[in-house]
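Retro notes (design track)

What went well: tokenization of the new backbones is finally stable.
What didn't: we kept losing track of which sequence belonged to which structure.
Fix going forward: every design gets posted as structure first, then sequence, in one message. First example under the new rule, 86 residues:
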């Protein structure tokens, strides 16, 4: 299920834009670590079926957060390119 697109407008100086990009990269790395950890636990067969269902749900939510952070990071990078070209 895809939700409607949202527009977000920020006014950031170059230093703040750098800080935002760094924060997004760190958050995205943490989510990727969580996705991988959950996948390893699932493929290794940890837990009973109920616990595995919970791990699967948590893994999907971590993947959704990772994807959202990736989209924001791409927008920040596109904004940086757009401001340097103009």
């Amino acid at each position: 299920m895809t939700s409607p697109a949202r527009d977000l407008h920020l006014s950031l100086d170059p230093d703040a834009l750098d800080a935002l990009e760094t924060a997004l990269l760190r958050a995205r790395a943490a989510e990727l670590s969580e996705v991988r950890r959950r996948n390893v636990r699932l493929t290794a067969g940890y837990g009973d079926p109920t616990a595995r269902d919970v791990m699967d749900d948590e893994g999907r939510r971590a993947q959704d957060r990772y994807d959202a952070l990736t989209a924001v990071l791409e927008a920040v990078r596109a904004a940086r390119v757009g401001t340097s070209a103009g």
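Added context from the reviewer: The CA atoms of residues 41 and 47 lie 9 Å apart.
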